[in-house]
């Protein structure tokens, strides 16, 4: 059974990286479009972006329990954690999203999304991450 662990981890990492880096495919306006998201607003497009890029690891409800999380160590951040929410800044969250985990001293499995730099969707994702607090 131990020979299967590297295979399972590799599949989980591939799934996480693929999910976290692909566009939502919803047919909405492009990533930089003001019609896709207003700064800091949690729109249906932001929820879909989270589902496509983040939920495979962080879970649909932000509890760090997405399908890929089973094979990850460390486990993905649970956005519902009140203590973490109280100590992390919006800029910290933005940096983690855009630069990836390794760049900010977190898990190297967390991929970077530099395509979101200076886009209103980044503020929307931060707002959505904040919305999980205490849930």
Descriptors for this entry?
135 residues, mainly alpha, Cytochrome Bc1 Complex, Chain D, domain 2, 44% helix
Write the layout of secondary structure elements.
Blueprint: H1 5-21, H2 44-53, H3 55-58, H4 82-87, H5 90-99, H6 120-131
Helix pairs in contact: 2-6, 5-6
Folded structure, characterized:
With 135 residues, this protein is mostly helical. The protein has a single domain (2-131), classed as Cytochrome Bc1 Complex, Chain D, domain 2, CATH 1.10.760. Helices cover 44% and strands 0% of the residues. The protein has helices at residues 5-21, 44-53, 55-58, 82-87, 90-99, 120-131. The protein is globular, with a radius of gyration of 15 Å. Residues 1-37 have low confidence and may be disordered.
């Amino acid at each position: 059974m131990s020979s299967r662990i590297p295979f399972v981890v590799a599949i989980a990492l591939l799934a996480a990286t693929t999910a976290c880096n692909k566009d939502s495919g919803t047919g909405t306006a492009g990533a930089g479009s003001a019609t896709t998201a207003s700064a800091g607003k949690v729109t249906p497009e932001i929820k879909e972006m989270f589902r496509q890029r983040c939920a495979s690891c962080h879970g649909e409800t932000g509890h760090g329990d997405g399908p890929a999380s089973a094979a990850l160590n460390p486990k993905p951040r649970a956005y519902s954690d009140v203590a973490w929410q109280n100590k992390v800044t919006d800029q910290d969250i933005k940096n983690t999203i855009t630069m990836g985990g390794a760049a900010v001293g977190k898990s190297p499995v967390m991929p970077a999304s530099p395509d979101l730099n200076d886009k209103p969707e980044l503020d929307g994702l931060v707002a959505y991450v904040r919305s999980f607090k205490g849930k």
